[in-house]
What we know:
This protein is mostly helical and 161 residues long. It has one domain (35-155): Tetracycline Repressor, domain 2 (Orthogonal Bundle), CATH 1.10.357. Helix content is 69%, strand content 0%. It has helices at 3-9, 14-20, 24-34, 47-58, 63-75, 81-109, 118-134, 141-155. The radius of gyration is 18 Å and the shape is elongated. The N and C termini lie far apart (58 Å).
Amino acid sequence: MTIEAVAKAAAVGKPAIYRRFSDKAGLVAHVISRQLPVLEPPDLGDSRAELWRAVEQGLPADGPSYVGLIGGLIAEQDRHPELIEAFRERILLPRRAIVRSIIERGQGRGEVRGDIDPEAALELMAGPFLARVFAALNTGPPWRKAAFETWWEILQERPAK
């Protein structure tokens, strides 16, 4: 990917691209962010509902294209480390922080197990999604709902016996 190629595909000159993006990393982060819905962490007073919303909004609808794009960034990291770094800093880490904050809020309410690390809890949902994409298995709405129910069973606080 070059700025020249992007400009040609957009039928504009390179200066038009540089007016909007200061560098290739900014352009790449913008393109990836456009593939993802906005992730909003409203306080609904119900951790299960908040986490379900995060799953619906947070997992890309087209997993293979998203993972392919990320794979391309990783493949280019030796030549262009700024691209994967821009993805991490501008997209991945802020989105992870949002979901982590929902999990922590649920722990504060006593609805999410307090003995589970919020980062580990987050990865218990992201990992299966990525594994299914890599295996070329469906990650559509039925799978997402079933995976979420299993995830919630693991995360939810159980009443003391």
